[in-house]
Design goal:
This protein is of the alpha/beta class. Helix content is about 30%, strand content about 15%. The protein has 12 helices and 18 strands.
């Protein structure tokens, strides 16, 4: 198994940590880690060496370690496929595993198929009970929800908790969280820990119990005939009529909010536009919006990836790479997710040593298999 350096700008995570090197080696795997692969996330080469990994110098100009690899583990696997010329050295049937941005990415799919490679896109992992330990999107969304509230609090022109001082009492900040998925619920929990009064809006009425269990106040979805539900653990796309009614409902809440955390996403589709320019005009100057959906078009009009925009006196923070800002723990969680998936694949091989079995009848495998080429007749 090969762990290359990440090559996408701003990516600080790594797919394998010294902890998971030991875990995978106990299953009979041999790990090769390119020198410096974990440096940005706080894992130095010495730690990988002590864990038992073979350290590879990527500057040596040789692609021999790529040609020997059965599996390539990456975070931004799509970038590795597109930017690392050494990928051409992989043998047919080798497996590329990581984030592949699979929705509508036909160019990458054709590229991998032409090279006769198998690839598993972790974004497509089904949300079923036995795949929970492998769920990369949830582990990283948890971090994003946490960090979003810290960003908003740092940018806000007010205290977050209630404070009683000699000069009088300061009322707590009011947080509005759009979306009660993994990121939204973590944002709620973090806002409450900081002392904010938190309101949560979600298209699913069933989210009310989760929100209230964390001390939040649930904003019930609009009462119209066709409400969006949930499929595969994700919220389904809402109709335009529903979104229009929701925006009307949110305008009143936005006028009262000090910080807004936008987390609403629908896999494979542009992010729903929940806050338009007219709604922003109702917000208090000095308030803050953190848009976690900015890379998919954004929940808030005017937000831009990786930057802060001032609009009508409101700071719009386009937070598209928040897990990378908590690189050590983000890598630790990502690596454990990957190790759990690999252990599942190894278990399917039974007594065959060092083999990864891609069972196309397994919903975990079939759910996230992006391309498949297996000349050996069953073992990738």
């Amino acid at each position: 198994m090969l762990v290359p350096r990440e090559c996408r700008s701003g990516e600080t995570r790594v797919a394998v940590t010294p902890e998971t090197v030991k875990r995978l080696m106990a299953r009979g795997c041999l790990l090769q880690v390119e020198q410096g692969a974990g440096e940005a996330s706080g894992f130095d080469d010495a730690a990988y060496g002590e864990a038992g990994a073979e350290l590879i110098d990527p500057e040596a100009g040789s692609s021999d370690h790529w040609s020997r690899a059965d599996v390539v583990l990456a975070v931004q696997a799509a970038a590795v496929a597109q930017q690392r010329r050494e990928l051409e050295a992989l043998r047919p049937g080798a497996l590329l595993l990581g984030l592949l941005e699979p929705h509508g990415n036909e160019a990458l799919k054709q590229q991998l198929e032409q090279r006769r490679l198998s690839a598993m896109a972790l974004e497509l992992l089904p949300r079923i009970s036995r795949a929970q330990t492998m769920d990369v999107l949830s582990s990283q969304a948890n971090i994003a929800g946490y960090k979003a509230v810290l960003l908003a609090s740092a940018a806000l022109d007010r205290y977050v908790p209630m404070l009683m001082t000699a000069a009088g009492t300061i009322q707590p900040a009011r947080a509005l969280i759009l979306g009660a998925g993994v990121a939204g619920l973590q944002a709620l929990a973090t806002a409450r820990r900081l002392g904010a009064v938190a309101y949560v809006s979600d298209v699913r009425a069933a989210a009310k119990e989760q929100v209230e269990s964390l001390g939040g106040r649930f904003i019930a979805p609009p009462e119209i005939e066709q409400k969006p539900g949930e499929a595969g653990g994700y919220a389904q796309q809402a109709s335009e009529a529903f979104l229009a009614e929701q925006r009307r409902q949110l305008t009143e809440q936005l006028a009262l909010a000090d910080m807004v955390i936008c987390t609403a996403l629908v896999p494979g589709r542009p992010a729903p536009r929940l806050i338009d320019d007219a709604m922003l005009r109702h917000m208090r100057p000095g308030s803050v919006v953190v848009d976690l959906a900015v890379a998919q078009g954004g929940n808030c009009e005017g937000s831009e990836p990786g930057t802060t925009v001032l609009r009508h006196g409101v700071q719009l923070i386009g937070a598209d790479q928040l897990p990378c800002s908590v690189a050590n723990h983000a890598s630790a969680l990502y690596a454990r997710n990957v190790a759990a998936l690999l252990e599942h694949l190894l278990a399917a091989a039974g007594d065959e040593p060092n083999a990864l079995q891609l069972d196309l009848e397994d919903p975990i495998v079939s759910g996230c298999l992006f391309t498949h080429h297996n000349p050996a007749g069953g073992v990738a």
